[in-house]
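Q: Joint fold for the lines below.
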Amino acid sequence: MLVNDDETMGYRRTLKQKPRGLWGQLLQNKKATFGLCIVLAFVVLALLSPLLVRDPSAFLAVPLAPPSGEYWLGTTGQGQDVFAQTLYGARTSLWVGFSVGVAVIVIGTSVGLAAGYFGGLVDDVLTTLINVFLIMPGLPLAVVLAAYLPAGPLTLAFVLIVTSWSWHARVVRAQTLSLRHKDFVNAAIVGGESHTRIMFLEILPNMTSLIVSGFIGATVYAIGAQVGLEFLGLGDVSVVTWGTNLYWAANNQALLTESWWTIVPTGLAIALTGFALVMINFAIDEVTNPRLKSESAWAEALRAAEVAPGFSTPVIRSKDA
Amino acid sequence: MTRARAAETPSGEADTAGQARASDAGTPILEVRQLGKYFAVGGGLKRQRLRALNDVSFKLHPREVIALVGESGSGKSTVAKILARLEQPTTGHVLFQGRDILAAEPKRASLDYRSKVQMIFQDPFGSLNPLHRVRYHLERPLVRHHGLEATALEERILSLLKAVGLTPPGEFAAKLPHQMSGGQRQRVAIARALAVEPAVILADEPISMLDVSIRMGVLNLMLKLKEERDLAYLYITHDIGSARYIGDSIMVMYAGHIVESASSDRLIDAAAHPYTELLLAAVPDPSAEKPRALSAKSGAPKLIDPPPGCPFADRCPKVKDVCKRENPEPVELAPGHRVRCHLYRD
Amino acid sequence: MPEPLLSIRNLRVEYLTPNGPVRAVDNVSFDVGAGEVFGLAGESGCGKSTLALAALRLLPPPALITGGEVLFEGKDILGMDDAALASFRWRKISLVFQSAMNALNPVLTVGAQICDVIEKHERVTRAQALERSAELLRLMGIDSTRLRSYPHQLSGGMRQRVVIAIALALKPPMMFMDEPTTALDVVVQREIMQQIAELKRELGFSILFITHDLSLMVEFSDRIGILYAGKLVELSDAKSLFEKPRHPYTRGLMASFPAVRGPRRRLDGISGSPPDMLHPPEGCRFHPRCSEAIPRCRSTRPPLLRVAPDAEVACHLYPAEARRP
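A: Joint structure:
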């Protein structure tokens, strides 16, 4: 039973086995840099917004005024600065989004690791827990919880964490199960390592891309779901967030009055953030799966020799044959 | 016959000495008594039992190499996993230096046990964590068991790498697993096992996944280390050739039972159990004039809810009625040569 | 001398990896005659599987055939288009893959898979295809009721027999077998090899037998070629290769199989590691590991020379012999 005896796959496999720093490879990837730049831009703008714009809650001007020199994105139905609101909205929305992302992966990873590593009774109990939370319908539960708990971003964060941690836990558990039986884990056990050390220092590092991906996925979900819940009026409508912006825009008959500027900027900001995060996720996918790269040199050679790729191995006789 | 026995063995000593060592009446370092392992398989209404091991007993003495030979499903790896405390047996006892280890530390193996009994695994690509450098792999047991730090730690790491033939050691210490060949990785695995200064190393098919030309180097290294460091090996393999090369004695396993055990030469020259004869006939032998015929029927043993009697009964060319009713107990044919077969029970 | 069935001349195959081109098969030439078993031996990365798949034009990207000829019954395989190859494969040369696990579709019954092959190449009714499939299974010693079994219901040995049966479906004049028994236990391995030998006597096909297990190969092959780092280093009939291996690599390989019988001897295998195919050594590719290397080995590549009526070696230690009458 020789391993790697299949030469035709051997070269691709050696590529796959090169675990160069995830970050190093990501920064070289165009999709990743693009996404990271946009996300970073939003974060910086959100952080600096008190210094950059006016008070978004102040009723300053003529309501529903279209964009002008003074108010770049016009005013809302209550005379507030839309530009200020869009930038300020990023603060809470991003804060809640990333917090939920972090919490989801901390809880989900710990539960998933423990379930996959220990097996037996521990796994049975934790899997039941995961499954219970998994089948709970997210949105209705979120609505119910938000209705009973004091309104505000903290409640929303709590609600979103509760309804989304189990999916990541399930994924981590599956990956842990497959890594658990690898010989290097057995070797660590035979070497006398503690359970915690094995889980967090032997198994977890082999799942970094999964975790980063999970974090981004959870964050995107959180931002979107947060907006959705606030749009329904379940957030604290006195706090300026992207979701409440849209809530007020709807309440103030934005569509009826054709005041697009009260909806579009916030909508675009949400879409752009989500898009950037998803781009980073795609990049992680590409980086951990170098299959696509390995065939580009080959495709180049065929093009240069004007040979159409077919099903069978092509024959391109080299000049020094 | 005697001349062949006195010939040079791989470790450079007369084989007679190895034979004497093997049947040394000293305290065995590891003793296994009537080990049994059953797995529950099937779900719901179909609850079945898979008999992986049954009544496995043997003794391993210091500086002895026992080769455990069997095909896949014979239970040989399960024996190693139980001795490495990666699995619990269903029945039976494991005595380490005379102490019943499963009674003394039932839940978790003590650090002391772990420092005495180590294991090397079959897959050189899987037994090293792909994200950690060689230095990390060797550091961990040294820190955990000996509390070494700084210069002492570094010195030990370099000396271990030299001992397994990975020179220059400084260069190898900095490598990641994917930067090394299969043979080099397996040497790192051996170094890791040596780091705790064990008394026993369980080697689970350590060379079967290596390139052919590299295998002998690793086996020779293991033999050299055994002499230098007073180690005992339980060498698990499906290949009788390497079993004979490294083993003072060979135990043949079939369907979870040890069907025959004897010193290497005796097993090959005077095999008693029909399954051993089958294995010996099946091994490729380019020097043979004609390929040997296989006398036994083709098939595999039934491990799930097995029928009573000898597990080899349905394939055995010399099967008798009693074989289908009773599972034979081991019988001693000669000092050190035991068989589990009704042909010899009179 | 009768025409060889398969004629490979100066074949070169490269992989265009992102780290650079890798010459996996470098100028390899040999013939296989009708009814002959030709063994191709070597370790991982030597190019033996690549060569077999290249001859059938089955290598996936980034593989490229960059030179040489592959002639079967006089026809040029490297010049054929996809359509011609589709009707050529399996009918003329079939392939037994290494691991039956990968070759058999887990969601189709064994019968369906054999019938598929037959129906694809010949105009037969389903009933006729099933009849043929049953006959093929019986030929391999499997009861025809197994036509309705799924691969996971069969043991490893039976699965490999099914793979061989599929390869025999169109009774081709030649079969490539890539490590057909490596993943199997030694007893099953012998049973299957004996079965293959019997079928070969009955049906008369040739075999290109690829494996790393030299002892198995010497038992079953008529002639053997030894590959190292993509190059053929020795070519000889099986018996003389075993009794008188010439190339230092071959000798090293012979010293890598501990004997079950006979006197106990210390064996050393070969020192060093297989070469990095991205940057293979200059001169003779084996010289860094060779205990008999001379200065010439480091600079010049030894050509494959005939040193006896049925033996060729690529080694600087041997040209003198070549000139002997």
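Q: Anything notable?
A: Residues 2-131+176-344 of chain B form a domain with the Rossmann fold fold (CATH 3.40.50.300). The longest strand of chain B covers residues 48-60.
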